[in-house]
Amino acid sequence: MPSCKGFTLVEFMVAVTILAILSAITIPNFNKFITQMRVDNEISALFQLLLIARNTAINSGTEVTVCPLDEGNRCSTLWQNEISVFIDSNDNKVYDRDSDDRLIKVKNAVNNSDKLQYALGRYRIVYAPTGRTVKWGSNGTLKYCPKNQENESRGIIISTSGRLYASSDKDNDGKDEDRNGKEITCR
After folding, report:
1. 143 exposed, middle or buried (CB, 10 Å; 0-12, 13-18, 19+)?
2. How buried is 1 (Cβ within 10 angstroms: 0-12 exposed, 13-18 middle, 19+ buried)?
């Protein structure tokens, strides 16, 4: 009679138990890793968008607007939607396709379950030809908050000088803070 090679039921159950334990340990860490990567990619894209706006203002010698546009192409406070960078030639807070306004770049909307907020009530960021921010509400903090994971929130601080600063975990509590030590949170 030929001998059969294989696993016994006990060996199989031990292997399944070990696999279940390893999965229970790694899956939460993997989800956290995926969230961190999503937040990092979004912050990087926003940083790049703001640098393009600032550099365009300096190189073109004209003001450049960064804002989310509503259905009427008017700047809005819905920062989680697409964000546009354009030259608003008549400073009417609207991207007019039929005027001298020029669209420079558009950034896709954020993940629909996440939040992107800019200082409450502020609807645009405007860079002057000097590279400084101008107009009311151009300086502040863009905050990206992933759904159900507030500890992973990050931000970009936009100063009046036009410089950009990424938030960081200054007090080693696992949460990013702005330059004044205030934790990055969305409402």
Report:
1. buried
2. exposed
Distance of CA 37 to the CA centre of its chain: 11
54 CB burial (10 A radius; 0-12, 13-18, 19+): buried
Stated length of the chain: 187
- Element holding 55 (H helix, E strand): helix 9-60
> Is the Cα dihedral 29, 35, 38, 41 positive or negative?
negative
**Measured at the alpha carbon of residue 111, what is the angle toward residues 143 and 184, in degrees to the nearest 5?**
20
pLDDT of residue 29 exceeding 90? no
Find out whether 33 and 152 touch, Cβ atoms under 8 Å: no
CA distance 60 to 46: 21
Tokens of 75: 């700047």
Predicted structure pTM score: 0.83
Residue 2 pLDDT > 80: no
Q: Which residue has the higher pLDDT, 26 or 75?
A: 75
